[in-house]
DNA sequence: CCAAAAGTGTTCTCTCTACACCCATGG
DNA sequence: CCATGGGTGTAGAGAGAACACTTTTGG
């Protein structure tokens, strides 16, 4: 921090942090990565991973660094986008703390246990957290809520759903992402048409994967398209 | 700021500001409210109105306060939403400054001249600013760019377009908002059907307004609906 | 053969689009 | 009467919803 800045503004400074909402699908449930806080405030409570932004990095770089430090996940392979800023006075008992929340979406990833900073990181089902919001430290329940709504909306207008699937994936895998996050079942045949007719959403690998039961499914990879047009609107929002 | 916080984090603190992108339509052009900066850095340059967030207010309250102080506009009657956080190192020569940008949409408003803080506030056409981005201080050209794209998207999925029209307004007025911001002309009859069939978008007042030329138009007010479903997709995005 | 999931086809409906056409006003 | 913008009607194309039906595997 530049000395001139400190002098000119006196004590009107804030602590700025980044928090990460890292979502994935595990065993048919939307799941978020949490850490157990090791320091006050909220020591011992569950919280979103995050930390202070350094003065020589962008907000996005800070998010990637915290992701690596706290969870040992390489974020460059995840979908990462800014969710918003949270700065209500009183959201942190220490005083004014503004946090920039980031949304990270990825396939089910193993979280290393033991040895590292990430030792205390674990996956938790989103549904339970939203049902009892006081589980989470700070205003993280609200951040999580906003993140989920953002994801549901992103599924409608973009191809990010594929970010949840480890490659290669079947159209059934992809459909499960929508079904879990939207909380409703979709017609498999209409879903197939929608996805395969959206240019650049998925790419056929030519390979197949035998299923636990039923006919083997063709395997796909993520395509180059990022936006869905026309969009894939949630049924029942009308 | 709590003393504990200052001690615990040392100098890793940032200045947090809010910046406002206040958009309106004036004479058929998208227009943004700017101020001439009265202090370094960028003294004398055009910039988005904004300022420091106080420690006892929310980010949104800070945005409303700055709006009032710098432009004398009562923001409670505008559409106000958070756009995002901008915090690249180097965006402010004084050091690390994180700004939370807010988007404000409203009808063409008179800006008071003289006497107040708002004396140096004025409307500027957006097109010229985007064509020569170095006109604006800091990274405000990028913020403005993001704001415009956000607005164009909001027009598709929400009823905010009506926020640009002083009440009561005609469907021609409303259509102009779309045409100006999307940069293309729309079929008037299809537009009418779309709007009047979207429940709660506009409310018929029963009154009429004589036009400069042609048949008088029915006057409407904003309806209670905030979301458009089905959305009103931009033509040609496909 | 049966269950289950993949994948195809069909029909109905709704929306968007384009464009023709009528209405009401000022000049 | 004419130009102009408001407002209505209509035919065609395309997308989505619902659902019947076929295919391909494991058990």
TrEMBL record, chains A, B:
PROSITE patterns according to UniProt: NUDIX, NUDIX_BOX
The Nudix hydrolase domain, residue ranges: 14-148
CDD domains: NUDIX_NadM_like (cd18873)
Coiled-coil region: none
GO molecular function: hydrolase activity
Protein origin, superkingdom: Bacteria
Alphabetically ordered keywords of this record: Hydrolase
UniProt cross-references to Gene3D superfamilies, sorted A to Z: Nucleoside Triphosphate Pyrophosphohydrolase (3.90.79.10), Winged helix-like DNA-binding domain superfamily/Winged helix DNA-binding domain (1.10.10.10)
Name this polypeptide is given: NUDIX domain-containing protein
Taxonomic lineage from the root: Bacteria, Bacillati, Actinomycetota, Actinomycetes, Streptosporangiales
């Amino acid at each position: 921090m530049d000395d001139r800045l400190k002098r000119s503004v006196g004590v009107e400074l804030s602590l700025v942090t980044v928090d990460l909402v890292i979502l994935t699908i595990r065993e048919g449930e939307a799941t978020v990565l949490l850490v157990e806080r090791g320091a006050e405030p909220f020591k011992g409570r569950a919280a979103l991973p995050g930390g202070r932004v350094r003065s020589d990095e962008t907000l996005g770089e800070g998010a990637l660094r915290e992701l690596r430090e706290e969870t040992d996940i390489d974020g460059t392979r995840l979908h990462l986008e800014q969710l918003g800023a949270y700065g209500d006075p009183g959201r942190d008992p220490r005083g004014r703390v503004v946090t920039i929340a980031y949304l990270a979406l990825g396939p089910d990833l193993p979280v290393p246990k033991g040895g590292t900073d990430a030792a205390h990181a674990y996956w938790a089902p989103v549904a339970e957290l939203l049902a009892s919001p006081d589980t989470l430290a700070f205003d993280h329940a609200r951040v999580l809520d906003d993140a989920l709504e953002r994801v549901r909306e992103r599924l409608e207008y973009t191809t990010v759903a594929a970010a949840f699937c480890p490659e290669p994936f079947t159209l059934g895998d992809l459909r499960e992402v929508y079904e879990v996050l939207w909380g409703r079942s979709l017609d498999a045949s209409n879903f197939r048409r929608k996805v395969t007719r959206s240019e650049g959403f998925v790419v056929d690998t030519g390979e197949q994967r035998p299923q636990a039961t039923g006919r083997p499914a063709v395997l796909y990879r993520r395509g180059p398209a990022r936006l869905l047009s026309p969009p894939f609107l949630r049924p029942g929002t009308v």
